[in-house]
Design goal:
CATH superfamily of the largest domain: NAD(P)-binding Rossmann-like Domain
Strand content: 15-25%
Distance between the termini: 17 Å
Number of strands: 14
Oligomer: single chain
Number of domains: 2
Structural class: alpha/beta
CATH architecture of the largest domain: 3-Layer(aba) Sandwich
Bound molecules: NADP nicotinamide-adenine-dinucleotide phosphate
CATH class of the largest domain: Alpha Beta
Largest sheet: 6 strands, parallel
Order of helices and strands: HEHEHHEEHEHEHEHHEEEEHHEHEEH
Number of helices: 13
């Protein structure tokens, strides 16, 4: 089945993916094998088939982005919404303090907001969660127990040894642990599971690191400094008097998350003699990471400076690194997932890019932008990466993860 056939070029443009003729493609390096995900066959879903989805935390920063992004999705249909007792019982347009740049989709405006209880989501196949981490743990567990497929943005299950932590442009192979997660549940689940996304800053850095490890073998050390947008803290987030004219050099828990999550994502899955699967945390080739996280007065888009040392000696040159970043094609693209970016990593030539205000919406924020690839005098190579923290750093990751789960038959319709 061809998505181009179903959707046509207008749909591709409507999603914000630049068409080959589009003038919105910024200058810089572009892969020569420019490919459209819509030209590939997609497995796991039939032409015209629609999939009901629910959104938990639908009124929050990430929840609103789910709703904005899903408005034009080819097969996911927003069917049920959940939020706190403050919002439950109201129509969505009355409950939400809408902060997106597009209007509330007409199909969602009048949907009722429910309490986050599985009984209201029985007709959903997939549930996307933008819940506050303080409440996500118990609620998401209840939804999994009700045999629903949950894709979470909260930190609650990222360290669970049976829950995959998936950045969809990096480690979709980790979906292979889902049968084990289902079998360990009492009683064993037929359809339910939890998949988590990474922290938004982790997402930005693991995509280029995965590309470099694929091309050049293990990265040995990595130094990261983040300049994180205020939207990363949800709404209303950091008080304006703390962030205007300022940089806050501390985000509680963030550095530890980046240093730990990167190992789970970039590591593999090993199997014991008894056949049990376990994440290996990059154990074969230790990867040392040091992150310093700061909050800056930017609304959306985390900028990160990254220096890496490769295990391989001599290391690749900056030009070889640029080429490897450009050539990187994740499985989500190969499978033809409709929300996957056309270019997982866009590599800028200009010295003053990427910048959050200019580059955060490229490909609807579904890829990452890298620039300033150059030699590092202490490690080997350094560069700057920009990640849209609310899109590929949150909602878009969950959406692509669900698309991949359908394409690989982890979710059956
Ligand atoms: N913002 C980002 O860039 C980003 C990136 C990656 C991951 N995340 C993670 O994504 C999650 C959501 O973040 P956010 O920025 O969207 O937060 P947010 O704007 O504060 O939204 C939180 C959502 O949780 C709901 N909620 C709060 N208490 C609840 C309860 N007791 N029961 C049910 N629902 C409840 C809220 O509903 P009401 O409106 O009814 O209160 C709201 O819909 C967090 O775990 C965060 O760490 C965020």
């Amino acid at each position: 089945m061809s998505f181009a056939g179903i959707l046509g070029r207008d749909f591709v443009g409507a999603l914000g993916f630049p068409t080959p003729q589009s003038s919105s493609v910024p200058p810089g390096f572009l892969p020569t094998d420019s490919q459209s995900p819509f030209l590939h066959d997609m497995h796991g879903i039939h032409q015209g088939e629609l999939v009901n989805i629910g959104v938990l935390g639908a009124t929050g920063t990430v929840g609103q982005r789910f709703i904005a992004l899903l408005e034009s999705h080819p097969y996911f249909v927003v069917h049920a919404l959940g939020a706190s007792a403050r919002s439950a019982g109201k129509a969505y347009s009355k409950a939400v303090n809408w902060k997106q740049t597009t209007p509330i989709p007409a199909s969602v405006r009048d949907l009722p907001v429910h309490a986050c209880e599985p009984e209201h989501f029985r007709e959903c196949v997939v549930v996307f969660s933008g819940l506050d981490a303080d409440v996500a743990g118990d609620i998401e567990a209840a939804f999994r127990a009700a045999d629903l497929a949950v894709f979470s943005n909260a930190k609650s299950y990222r360290r669970d040894p049976h829950v995959p932590l998936i950045v969809p442009l990096v480690n979709t192979s980790h979906l292979s642990i889902i049968p084990q997660q289902r079998s360990l549940h009492t009683p064993p689940l037929r359809k339910g599971f939890i998949v988590t996304n990474a922290n938004c800053s982790t997402t930005g850095v693991v995509i280029p690191l995965a590309a470099l490890e694929r091309a050049f073998g293990p990265v040995e050390s990595c130094l990261i400094t983040t300049m994180q947008a205020v939207s990363g803290a949800g709404y209303p987030g950091v008080p304006s008097l703390d962030i205007f004219d300022n940089i806050v050099p501390y985000i509680p828990g963030e550095e530890e998350k980046m240093e730990w999550e990167t190992l789970k994502i970039l590591g593999g899955i090993g199997e014991s003699d008894a056949g049990a699967q376990a994440f290996d945390m990059h154990a074969g080739t230790p990867l040392r990471i040091s992150a310093s996280c700061t909050r800056v007065p930017v609304i959306e888009g985390h900028t990160e400076t990254v220096s890496v040392r490769f295990a391989r000696r001599p290391p690749p040159s900056p030009q070889q690194v640029r080429e490897a970043l450009l050539a990187y094609t994740p499985e989500a693209q190969t499978l033809g997932c409709p929300s996957a970016p056309r270019h997982a990593i866009y590599v800028h030539e200009e010295d003053d890019r990427p910048q959050p205000r200019l580059d955060r919406n490229y490909q609807q924020g579904a890829g990452v932008s890298v620039g300033r690839v150059r030699q590092c005098r202490v490690l080997d190579v350094k560069f700057v990466v920009l990640v849209n923290n609310v899109n590929i750093g949150a909602a878009t990751s969950s959406i692509i993860n669900a698309e991949v789960a359908i394409a690989k038959g982890v979710i059956t319709l």
